[in-house]
């Protein structure tokens, strides 16, 4: 992804004019955003951004006390908020959460699959306890698919649904010891591509987004290991949140099925639209010699 990034005038670390919150005030009135991992960090900021833009939100996560605290915080923005304790690695749990959202609000228009995990330690393939490696896949790949499967009927029903998956730039890297997380996010990129392939005709748009280098409970192990000597976790969670708000507004539907880095300025990306579409890039591909 670096060559494309070099075409930009600058990378961004926080809210910039193209995703200024005032641009989206009230645009999601009557719509519902369903967000996994919505009680803290990136998920909470995303829930607040959609609420500030007029949406009602339904957040799910494992820890009920944190969900209740987040609900109170989001409600201050004037939104109606629903919560449910959900384990994204258990399909029936996620299905129950989605059903609760529909029962409360009658619909789901936007889904943000934010929940995930990063292994606490980095190991070579043969040094992983098999259950630890698989656990990362369960949360990041299976959890994202379960989120999709549980909410997809509602997204299709709207005729204009949006599915936004939290990915990572690490999906494009090959760092020893990082196999579980990197492979899981590579798979997430492919999943969003498949959503576009199979459900575009139903009006469903899907994006996989790298949120930036943000210090959260999930990224903390990475900050303390692989990148412990680098001060790179400097971006704001609001960057992903308001990027998601803009993408779900319909302004960049042509990016559906593609990977996007929130540190790329969307206004500058628009200048590259013809090349991106013509060359069918920002998708995970096998490179062959020319």
UniProtKB/TrEMBL annotation:
Top-rank taxon, per record: Eukaryota
Gene Ontology CC terms: membrane
Pfam entry (one): adh_short
Domain Ketoreductase residue range list: 31-218
Family annotation (Gene3D superfamilies): NAD(P)-binding Rossmann-like Domain (3.40.50.720)
GO MF entries: oxidoreductase activity
InterPro entries linked: KR_dom, NAD(P)-bd_dom_sf, SDR_fam
Record's keyword terms, sorted: Oxidoreductase
UniProt record similarity statement: Belongs to the short-chain dehydrogenases/reductases (SDR) family.
Protein name as it appears in the record: Ketoreductase domain-containing protein
Source organism per UniProt: Tulasnella calospora MUT 4182
């Amino acid at each position: 992804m670096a060559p494309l990034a070099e075409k930009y005038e600058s990378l961004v670390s926080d809210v910039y004019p193209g995703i200024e919150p005032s641009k989206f005030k009230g645009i999601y009135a009557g719509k519902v955003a369903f967000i996994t991992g919505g009680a803290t960090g990136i998920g909470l900021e995303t829930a607040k951004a959609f609420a500030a833009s007029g949406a009602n939100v339904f957040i799910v996560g494992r820890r009920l006390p944190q969900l209740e605290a987040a609900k109170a915080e989001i409600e201050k923005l004037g939104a109606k908020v629903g919560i449910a304790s959900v384990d994204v690695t258990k399909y029936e749990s996620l299905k129950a959460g989605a059903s609760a959202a529909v029962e409360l609000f009658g619909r789901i228009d936007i889904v943000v699959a934010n929940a995930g995990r990063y292994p606490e330690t980095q190991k070579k393939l043969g040094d992983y306890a098999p259950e630890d490696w698989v656990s990362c896949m369960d949360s990041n790949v299976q959890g994202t698919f379960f989120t999709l499967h549980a909410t997809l009927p509602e997204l299709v029903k709207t005729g204009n649904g949006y599915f936004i998956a939290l990915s990572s730039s690490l999906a494009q890297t090959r760092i020893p010891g990082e196999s579980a997380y990197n492979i899981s996010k590579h798979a997430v990129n492919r999943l969003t591509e498949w959503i576009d392939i199979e459900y575009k005709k139903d009006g469903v748009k899907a994006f996989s987004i790298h949120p930036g280098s943000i210090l959260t409970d999930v990224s903390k192990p990475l900050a303390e290991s692989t990148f412990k000597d680098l001060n790179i976790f400097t971006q704001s969670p609001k960057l992903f949140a308001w990027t998601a708000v803009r993408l779900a507004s319909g302004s960049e539907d042509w990016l559906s099925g593609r990977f996007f880095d929130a540190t790329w300025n969307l206004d500058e990306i628009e200048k590259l639209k013809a090349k991106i579409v013509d060359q069918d890039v920002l998708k995970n591909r096998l490179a062959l010699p020319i």
